[in-house]
Amino acid sequence: MKKRVLSALLSVTMVASLLAGCGGSTTTTTEAPAEEAAPAAEEAAPAEEAAPADDAAASTDKFYIYSWNTELGERLEYVYAAYPEIKDRVEYVNVGDSAIYQEKIDQLLQTPDAPDYPDLIAFEAGYIMKYTNSDYTLPVTDCGLTDADLSEMYPYTIDIATDQRDNSLKGVSWQSCPGSFIYRTDLAESLLGVKSPEEMQAKLATWDDFLDTAREIKEKSGDATRIVSSNGDVVNTFMSNKTQPWVDKEGIFHMDDSMLQYMDVVKTLEQEDLTQKTTQWSEEWNAGPSGDSVFGYFGCTWFLHWVIKSNCGGEKVGEGTYGLWNMTQGPAPYYWGGTWLGATAGCSDTALAGQIMKGLCTDTEIMTKMSEETLDYVNNKAAMKTLSDAGKGAYDFLGGQDFISVFSPLAEDVDVSWMCAYDQKVNELLDTQVTEYSLGNKDKDAAVADFKAAVAEAYPAVTVE
Amino acid sequence: MATNTSRATKVKDGAHARVMGASIFRNAVCIFLCFLSLIPFWIMLVNATRSSTEIQMAFSLIPSTHILENFQKLLYQANQNVPLYRYMVNSFAIAGFSTVLSVYFSTATAYGVTVYKFKGSQFAWAFIMAIMMIPTQVSSIGFFRFMYNLGLSNNYIPLIVPAIAAPATVFFMRQYMLSALPLEIIDAARIDGSAEFKTFNTIAVPLMKPAVATQAIFVFIASWNNFYTPSMLLSSQKLYTLPMFVQLMRGERFRSDYGIIYVGLVITILPIFIVYFALSKYIIAGVALGGVKE
Amino acid sequence: MAKPAKQKRKTVEYGRYGYYFIAPFFIVFAIFQLWPLIYTIGLAFCENYTDTMFNVEVGPVFNGIENFKTVFIGKDGTLFNTYTFQSLWNTILMWLMNFVPQILLALVLAIWFTDTRVKMKAQGAYKIMTFMPNIITAATISVLFYSLFNYPNGPVNQFLLESGLLSQPYRFFQQKWATRGIISFINFWMWYGNTMVVLTAGVLGISPSLFEAARVDGASSFQIFKKITLPLLRPILLFTLVNSAIGGLQMFDIPKLLTTSGYGDPDYTTRTITMYMRELAFTGAKQMGKASATSVVLFVVTLFFSLVLFYIMRDKDAIRERKQNKAIQKEIARKGAK
């Protein structure tokens, strides 16, 4: 008896696991019918009949778009709204973790036969060049994008995604992310007597000014307030102002002088106790905007909405610190982050890829709507101008300051000649040594030497001194 | 005589007091250790009842009132794409089948190398022990690439079937078998004319029940909690597991709602909690017996 | 009396069934794991990495033991002065830091739970609860411990400030010994319940009459522990040690997830060898060749540790006894045959 139960259980298990497996492998065709019963099944049937005709078969295949969070998926809804017929074909893959995302697409890009080989992939600024400077991605012209389509984009977003070997454009972005210093107006007035963004900018014009202001804030507030939350908050501004990339085209590593200045600024912040000494993205760091302990943040377009506004402890003027913020450029112009979209070398439907890229990143009408509803600073000058002219830039969260007119000139001026495919990893390696130096565990020479050793170790093909 | 007895009682009293003292001390230490073990569970539960802002502002051990709100938000977030129960069903399917396959075939493998003496049995056993010591971090890359090439990505097969070859489970089963499965019983069954596989299924497996229960819960927990392998292999959100869903919530680092994350964690751990308590009696006994013989 | 001989004959006869029983394991292993394993071992002897500049894979091309040279010899030509061995030392250190207190506490608890004079009625509950940290994911545990030791407002810091032990908050995760200590503590806390349950069973397996006899002879508790409990517990200690050594050398989750960068903050002092292997294989130039060589080294180290443990902990009496038994059986068999 027992044996029969067991063997029955076992065979059920085997069959079920096989079924589960098959269901997975042929998701493209069998999942949908199973889910939506009759109508979907009818759809699937003609598709099979049409299989011999190449074009028809291609148009029923799932079109895979890979990303690491929901952001791109939410923005794609604007494209679907304009072209509802493509929605069912797109399988949006949200990997959910930025590190695993890269591991996964790296593996998939090397196996074009995989059933879920990506058609479009998203890149973050930190590693985009690894893909755009390679044969794993297609030029956007192959997907039907023309120079005219690119005319309203901010130049830096094009520079970043251009293959440095043949100057072909490999990716497009729907957002532009110039950075600014976002600070508390009430604290500026009470602690520094500053009443306008221009006056604030004068107190942050250089890094020396920035440190002096930091000392003043600490002293006047009686240690209650610090200029920024974590020592790491200044990093993006410094990285954007390197005079040369970490690794040049000959594969030679360069330690820019601005990086030595960066190490010293962080050390001063640490040793003179000028920040809250939190860790970026930690719970306490996120909690900063709701209280009076942090004077300001270095933040860009998306940062303003998603970090400061969403953590300010209120949803309208008068609640929390809502309405008590202003923006100014800070010690140097910079940009931070952004997401690009590129077609893969084995993209199954370049026409669809082009349609999506155009809809998301070049269509002024769609992008205007997107910007208005999501407050994204979109990568479309015409769209931003329309909104600015319509007075949509005045933002009650910033006490009425026009965020579009602050960001517009900054977005035009972004220079990305310092970027290279090595940035993400090298910046991480630097960060470790900057921390050691700032804590006084190592002198500068030792920290720099350890940093260089780590770079040489991570990249055997790079010449380090 | 009288003095003698009184001294005896005194000695007895003294010993009794010492036993009492030791008992109080030992129980106190154990209660402290239990408290240490339970704290994280408590923090998790408490945070599930707190709003994101409360969690950010300060640490607390006192529950708040936002549990329903957090849970509704979680449901809303989940239902935008795939209903929450779907993730649960997926997780159950993967963990459940892996567990059954792993435990059954590990028992069979251990049975094979323990009960039968055949050419190469020593080598087979040494080989299984060696596999246990191989670090998998690097060969996993080969595994993923191999699965993609076979067209097995976005599929449950590579998440379930490899569970059949689980050297650690085999190791444990063998240790247990050495102490709990007398060969005489198998011989007796043979004399009764029982076929070998029947003997295994009807006599050996039932005798292994505590070990099976123990390994079942371990394999189930490991499979249920596994996040990395499914993340690398699955692409359709319909096929995602519960821990992958929690990571989707957590991955939104700009807009993280900590309340939702903690509710997600509690929901993830709840099924394991239930299974664990249901089987805890066997686990305590099973681990013990598996370890008895060298 | 002739039973052992009969049994032997039987098992020989049925031997082929052994293959059927172990076949599924080896078939599945061959399908899913063998190829990746051979591939990895092969790569250990090849030059294979990605040139990041234009994302071009270099190799795999056979290059002999070049990878092993870079694993063993540092840039300055010193043996073992490499990231691989630094991370191996970190791993061994953090394993010892959690394993030594773990086995000591587990032993003490096992002795308490089996003490016939001081009975602990609630021990079942204690066992279940101390076992529980095993069921949460490492990711969750890391997040919880990170917030416990957070700077400056984490509960541990608040407690230390309020109780006057510290005058200002301490940054645990920027001090290497504090971070190593926390990682070791988490591992200790996760696993001592498991070890304790196994050891308790071991003590219970020792015949109570031995303890009785020793006590009658006036032996102290410590003498009993040293002369009876410990020697007879040897097989189980071996099981525990080998298991823990394998697990400890592959320590990954907690140090990876607890620190901010995930690369062994501060300054790589908590980077374990498996973390380093993954860093090599997945980040930077994706140096598969070197990562594979490192993984071969780790396997050899694990094997070496296990063999040493087996050798130290081998039961000399049992070996002698087994030999004697065999001789007796042979004798019986010879006589029976006659």
TrEMBL record, chain A:
The answer on whether this UniProt entry bears the keyword Membrane reads no
Stated name of the protein = ABC-type glycerol-3-phosphate transport system substrate-binding protein
Region called Disordered, residue ranges = 25-56
Q: Do you know which InterPro entries this protein is assigned to?
A: Bact_solute-bd_prot1 (IPR050490)
Question: Which residues, if any, are the signal sequence?
Answer: 1-20
Q: What PROSITE patterns does UniProt report for this protein, alphabetically?
A: PROKAR_LIPOPROTEIN
Q: Which domain of life is it from?
A: Bacteria
Respond yes or no to whether keyword tRNA processing is given for this record. no
Residue ranges annotated as transmembrane are: none
Q: Where is the composition biased (Low complexity)?
A: 31-56
**Key words, A-Z:** Signal
Q: In which organism is this protein found?
A: Kineothrix alysoides
TrEMBL record, chain B:
Limits of the ABC transmembrane type-1 domain: 88-279
Q: Which residues form a coiled coil?
A: none
What Pfam family does this protein match (any one)? BPD_transp_1
Q: Which organism is it from?
A: Kineothrix alysoides
Family under the similarity heading = Belongs to the binding-protein-dependent transport system permease family.
> Transmembrane segments in this chain: where?
24-45, 92-116, 123-144, 156-173, 259-279
Per the record, the domain of life is Bacteria
Listed name of the protein: Carbohydrate ABC transporter membrane protein 2 (CUT1 family)
Which InterPro entries does this UniProt record tie to the protein? MetI-like, MetI-like_sf
Membrane-protein topology: Multi-pass membrane protein
This entry carries the following GO cellular component terms, namely: plasma membrane
Report the main location listed first in the record.
membrane
Listed under GO biological process in this entry are:
transmembrane transport
Q: Where is this chain's protein located in or outside the cell?
A: Cell membrane
Q: Which Gene3D superfamilies would you find in this protein's record? A: MetI-like
Listed A to Z, the keywords are: Cell membrane, Membrane, Transmembrane, Transmembrane helix, Transport
Q: Does the keyword Membrane apply?
A: yes
From TrEMBL, chain C:
InterPro entries membership: ABC_transporter_permease (IPR051393), MetI-like (IPR000515), MetI-like_sf (IPR035906)
Q: Report if keyword Cell membrane is assigned.
A: yes
Q: Name one GO biological process term.
A: transmembrane transport
Q: Name one Pfam family in it.
A: BPD_transp_1
Q: What keywords sit in the KW lines? A: Cell membrane, Membrane, Sugar transport, Transmembrane, Transmembrane helix, Transport
Please tell me where this protein is predominantly located. Answer: membrane
Annotated compartments: Cell membrane
Q: Which residues form the ABC transmembrane type-1 domain?
A: 88-309
Domain of life (superkingdom) = Bacteria
Bilayer topology: Multi-pass membrane protein
Q: Which SUPFAM superfamilies match?
A: MalF N-terminal region-like, MetI-like
Q: Which family does it belong to?
A: Belongs to the binding-protein-dependent transport system permease family.
PANTHER family referenced in this protein's UniProt entry, alphabetically: ABC TRANSPORTER PERMEASE PROTEIN, INNER MEMBRANE ABC TRANSPORTER PERMEASE PROTEIN YCJO
**Protein name as catalogued:** Multiple sugar transport system permease protein
The organism encoding this protein is Kineothrix alysoides
Its lineage reads: Bacteria, Bacillati, Bacillota, Clostridia, Lachnospirales
